[in-house]
UniProtKB/TrEMBL annotation:
UniProt cross-references to CDD domains, sorted A to Z: ASKHA_NBD_TsaB
Domain of life: Bacteria
One Pfam family cited in the UniProt record for this chain: TsaD
Higher taxonomy: Bacteria, Bacillati, Bacillota, Bacilli, Bacillales
GO CC annotation terms, alphabetical: cytosol
Organism: Lysinibacillus odysseyi 34hs-1 = NBRC 100172
SUPFAM superfamilies in UniProt: Actin-like ATPase domain (SSF53067)
Gcp-like domain boundaries: 29-225
Protein's UniProt name: Gcp-like domain-containing protein
Gene Ontology BP annotations: tRNA threonylcarbamoyladenosine modification
Length: 234
């Protein structure tokens, strides 16, 4: 079975083609090119490197969020368009779980997180190589997350390109129980995304039409609009 994996949920970008459990081609990058400009060319380059055509894939896996509102939307839009056009099933995977998969050999709690601005994060926590969910995907203050992790009273491996933004605070609250993953694990890999998708039951092709991103919070523009409406109502 041939999979196409797409992850543009945050600043890094990764796309991969996996055939029968083997990575055929994969692109992973963390450069300052917006996904609206770079994502589709990366997919095209991927197929070129693999010497394959889109029609050859059997299913699509995409990072469904949380993360950058724009990044998630772009990845999901590309994935839905390809899946619907090619009449292939589409599987969504948590962007946090996909990142945690990079560190699945860690014997303990793995905490992937993304900067959601203003001292907020998107985060989750998993345990062991089976990525058993300890804390589900959510949007929280960094201190709220750390208090929850502190209550576990276990060593926690933090992973992601945004960890350094919060590292001083993480160490202040968790002390020696906080471990920084190697920077080599910080970038999400679309091949890991596919590996997670392979464990899911394939949905129908018709389900592609109803697939929606999982932002875990409303967009800032929508939040501002709601605030304005409340002011008007008052």
């Amino acid at each position: 079975m041939i999979w196409l994996g797409i992850d543009t949920a945050n600043a890094p970008l990764s796309v991969a083609i996996v055939k029968d459990g083997q990575v055929v081609a994969e692109i992973v990058q963390n450069i300052k090119v917006t996904h609206s400009v770079g994502a589709m060319p990366a997919v095209e380059e991927l197929f070129k490197k693999a010497q394959m055509k889109p029609a050859q894939i059997d299913a699509v896996a995409v990072s469904e969020g949380p993360g950058s509102y724009t990044g998630v939307r772009i990845g999901v839009t590309i994935a839905k368009t390809l899946a619907w056009t090619l009449k292939k099933p589409l599987v969504g995977i948590s962007s946090l779980q996909a990142l945690a998969a990079n560190a699945k050999m860690f014997d303990g709690v793995i905490c992937p997180l993304f900067d959601a601005r203003r001292q907020h994060v998107y985060a989750a926590a998993y345990r062991g190589d089976k990525l058993e969910e300890v804390i589900g995907d959510h949007h929280d203050y960094i201190d709220g997350l750390l208090e929850t992790l502190q209550a576990l009273d276990e060593k926690v491996l933090f992973i992601g390109t945004d960890i350094d933004v919060f590292w001083d605070r993480i160490k202040e609250i968790l002390g020696d129980k906080a471990i920084r993953a190697s920077y080599t694990l910080d970038l999400p890999r679309a091949a890991e995304l596919v590996a997670l998708a392979e464990k899911r039951e394939l949905p129908s092709v018709e389900a592609v039409h109803h697939f929606v991103p999982q932002y875990r919070r409303i967009a800032e523009a929508e939040a501002n609009w709601i605030k304005e409406q409340k002011k008007v109502a008052e």
